[in-house]
Amino acid sequence: MRALVLSGGIAHPFAETSAAMAGILADAGLGAEIAPAGPGLDRLDENWDLVVINALAFTMTQSEKYAPLRAAHAFSISPDRRAALRDHLAGGGGLLGLHAAAICFDDWPEWGDILGARWIWGRSGHPSPDYLEVTPLSGHGLTEGLRRFRVWDELYCDLALAGDARVLATARCREQTRPQPVLTAREGPGRVVWSGLGHDMTSFATPAHRMLLTRAIHWVLRLI
Q1: Stated pTM of the model
Q2: Residue 187: how many CA atoms within 13 Å on its side-chain side?
Q3: DSSP 89-103
Q4: Who has the most CB within 10 Å: 79, 83, 169, 181?
Q5: What is the rounded distance in angstroms from the CA atom of residue 128 to the CA atom of residue 182?
Q6: Answer CATH for 2-121+160-168+181-220 from 3.40.50.880, 3.90.1150.10, 3.30.43.10, 2.60.40.1840
Q7: Is 17:52 a contact under the CB 8 Å cutoff?
Q8: How far apart are the C-alpha atoms of 92 and 32, rounded to whole Å?
Q9: pLDDT, tens digit, for every residue of 44-59?
């Protein structure tokens, strides 16, 4: 089985975390390749079993603080690339979005309904990174038997969830005591999981988080 990891963007150590994700995929029995978001989307016709989005690919038009970075990092997803992602899922391919995937593709209104969660500018936000108390929810094969754990990470808050997205884990921290969804799943011809965890290598080094990602891989690929 083969996985393609779309990687890159600002404010996160994507090179390191994507390499860590490739290692988790390898441990799960998948050969993984890492590519920048744009060139990677152009390769979706190569029959990947799983596409992982570990990137921050967005238009950067929401604030002038991004102006100096736009030339190098702004991203707009073309109609052809949107169609390629739809075709991947329609053909039974899996999709796993990590952390900032909820901010990606902000000029594609359908993206939040596909991924399961979406950042809403002017409403969504996050406290400073902190220890999160992550609570997996029972009653689903992905989280069955998983226990509550702590991880140092960045907690996205007040995201919009797709109507058919099932919340499988929540988290809270000292600044945000109201539990926030950090794991969602959608069932269709191709399964989709979004994990809100994974800001940096501290998160990826946490064994319980790695186990959660492994279970997400297995569920998306219909192995559990």
Answers
A1: 0.98
A2: 8
A3: HHTT-EEEEEGGGGT
A4: 169
A5: 16
A6: 3.40.50.880
A7: no
A8: 18
A9: 999 999 999 999 999 9
